[in-house]
Structures are given as structure tokens and as C-alpha cells.
Amino acid sequence: MFQRHNIGAIILGTFFTCAGVMHFLVTDGYVAMMPIYIPWQRGLVYLSGAFEIAGGLGVMIPPIRRFAGIGLIVLLIAVFPANAHVALHGLPVASADLPVWGLWLRLPLQFLLIYWVAKITLFDETFEPYSAS
After folding, report:
1. Over 70: is that where the pLDDT of 39 sits?
2. Maximum Cα interatomic distance, the chain, rounded to a whole number of Å
3. Distance from the CA of 15 to the CA of which of 51, 52, 61, 100 falls in 20 to 30 A?
4. Which helix (H) or strand (E) holds 47?
5. What is the mean pLDDT of the segment spanning 30-50?
């Protein structure tokens, strides 16, 4: 039976896995979000999607949950400038037109995502990694 922290990890992992898959399904929409001065845009979209999928799956595997969480936090920090670029220039988000206020709302939500990842993977006191006994 799943405990509370396992269900939270499954929800978190599913969220990031699905978000990562979207990088492969709506690649052009993600490329359009990137600042022009960033090279190798399509490759970085694929790479960030792969990292989101790996992090999402890793969060659901207790022995590597902490490592996956650190990776997702680093990824969220790394993509923040692209999200700020989208808000500043009113660009569509992965081909979806959001209102301007929605673009700006995504920025503080990024910090909430970082908190959510940290809470589930780094600071969940109910989590006990596998032991040798």
C-alpha cells in the first residue's frame, strides 16, 4: 500500500514526465519560447524534455528520488530565463496562447514547483530510503 509520500512522489513524477513528453510532441512551440541568442534551440528542447522525463521517473523510484529531485530543481532554475523571456515578450507557451497575466503568473509558479520538488524529494521527513535490513 502506498503511503502519503509515495502518492505525492507519483503525482509529482507523473507531472514532470508528462511535461517532458510534451517537449517531443510540441517541439516547435517550445523552440518558439526560447530567446534568439540561445544556440541549439531544438536540441535543448529535446534535452530539457528528456531531463524532465528522467527526473519525473526518478522521483517515483525511492533509491534515486533525492538525486532526481536535485536534477529537477536545477532544471527549473535553468529554464527560468526562458520563462521570463516568454512573459516579457508575450510569447505563446508551447503553442498555447495564454493571457499576459498568465505568462507572468508562470514565473512565481516556477518557485512553487521548486518548493514542491524539494518538499517531496529533499525535505519529506516521512520518507525513509531503502535500508540494508
Report:
1. yes
2. 55
3. 100
4. helix 41-59
5. 92
